[in-house]
């Protein structure tokens, strides 16, 4: 059985991870900016510019995680969980802006190439910054998925894209210095821009799905249906099962058909049992059950076993 973190603890952990992402982003930006300045490489400058976006997206993720942790109130009775999807949209937009800026810099560098200087210390610093990003991106993605945080997952994906871009840039800068073909530096920057743009598209696509109340994936839905069937003793069937994901919360609602002679108390006990099992198995489950008499049976959906 999957262990579920209490909501408050989960929110606190997500907040600490988001704050850590901001600290790492600022540190990596400083390291990459120095490497770009020391070598004069357009590609390394583009890579540093992408790290500016990392800092901005880390701030957006931090704000969204704090907002999503707020409890539901009269104005937003279903909670603030979707704030993280708005953050992911903002992150995707900033990624697209970064791609445009990098592309413009690559265009300028291709027609006005400047020599790239070999600075072993600066290159080593850029490699160190990339290792920081790689380790943090892996941690951020793992924790984001565990805590069901779209903002953290989006931030992780962008950081991993940054890692891939930087590795390509470092290899390319070495080739530029070895061959003397300075336009290659600008071409590499353009490839970084394309990679950044693709990352932004992926983030936007997933966040829009969350804002549109996308259902849980088929495998999870199947598990939910089987759990309902196995723990609804005394009921006849369950139908019209619907799910939607909102950050760390999974909303589940369905109709439960019970015998017409069953008392309200007995029907309520069945509902309590199903809700308890769903919450044990599905992290952040919010369950709504509409009880119906047996003449409302559709003879379809979930047959109780």
From TrEMBL:
Entries under InterPro entries matching the protein? Cation_efflux (IPR002524), Cation_efflux_CTD (IPR027470), Cation_efflux_CTD_sf (IPR036837), Cation_efflux_TM (IPR058533), Cation_efflux_TMD_sf (IPR027469), CDF_Transporter (IPR050291)
* Residues in Cation efflux protein transmembrane domain copies: 21-212
Keyword Membrane in the entry? The reply is yes
Q: In the UniProt record, does the keyword Transport occur? A: yes
Which stretches are transmembrane?
Answer: 12-37, 43-65, 85-106, 118-139, 159-181
What cellular component GO annotations does this protein have?
plasma membrane
Compartments where found = Cell membrane
| Topology class, membrane | Multi-pass membrane protein
Residue ranges of every copy of the Cation efflux protein cytoplasmic domain listed in the record: 221-294
Q: Which GO terms describe its molecular function?
A: cadmium ion transmembrane transporter activity; ferrous iron transmembrane transporter activity; zinc efflux antiporter activity
Q: What is its main location?
A: membrane
Protein name according to UniProt: Protein p34
Q: Which organism is it from?
A: Devosia enhydra
Q: What is the lineage of its organism?
A: Bacteria, Pseudomonadati, Pseudomonadota, Alphaproteobacteria, Hyphomicrobiales
């Amino acid at each position: 059985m999957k262990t579920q973190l209490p909501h408050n603890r989960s929110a606190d952990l997500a907040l600490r991870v988001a704050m850590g992402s901001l600290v790492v982003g600022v540190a990596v930006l400083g390291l990459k900016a120095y490497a770009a300045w020391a070598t004069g490489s357009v590609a390394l400058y583009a890579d540093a510019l992408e790290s500016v976006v990392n800092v901005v997206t880390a701030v957006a993720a931090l704000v969204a995680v704090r907002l999503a942790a707020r409890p539901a109130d009269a104005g937003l009775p279903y909670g603030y969980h979707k704030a993280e999807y708005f953050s992911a949209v903002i992150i995707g937009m900033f990624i697209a802006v970064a791609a445009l800026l990098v592309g413009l810099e690559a265009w300028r560098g291709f027609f006005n190439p400047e020599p790239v200087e070999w600075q072993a210390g600066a290159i080593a610093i850029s490699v160190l910054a990339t290792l920081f990003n790689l380790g943090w991106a892996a941690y951020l993605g793992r924790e984001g998925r565990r805590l069901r945080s779209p903002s953290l997952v989006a931030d992780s994906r962008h950081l991993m894209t940054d890692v891939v871009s930087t590795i390509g840039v470092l290899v390319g800068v070495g080739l530029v210095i070895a061959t003397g073909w300075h336009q290659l530096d600008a071409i590499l920057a353009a490839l970084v821009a394309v990679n950044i743009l693709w990352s932004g598209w992926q983030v936007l696509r997933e966040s829009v799905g969350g804002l549109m109340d996308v259902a849980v994936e088929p495998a999870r839905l199947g598990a939910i249906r089987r759990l309902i069937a196995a723990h609804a003793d005394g009921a006849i069937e369950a139908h019209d099962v619907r799910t939607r994901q909102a950050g760390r919360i999974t909303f589940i609602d369905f109709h439960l058909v019970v015998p017409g002679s069953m008392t309200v108390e007995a029907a309520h006990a069945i509902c309590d049992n199903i809700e308890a099992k769903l919450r044990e198995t599905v992290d952040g489950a919010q369950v709504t059950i509409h009880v119906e008499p047996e003449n409302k049976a559709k003879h379809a959906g979930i047959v109780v076993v």
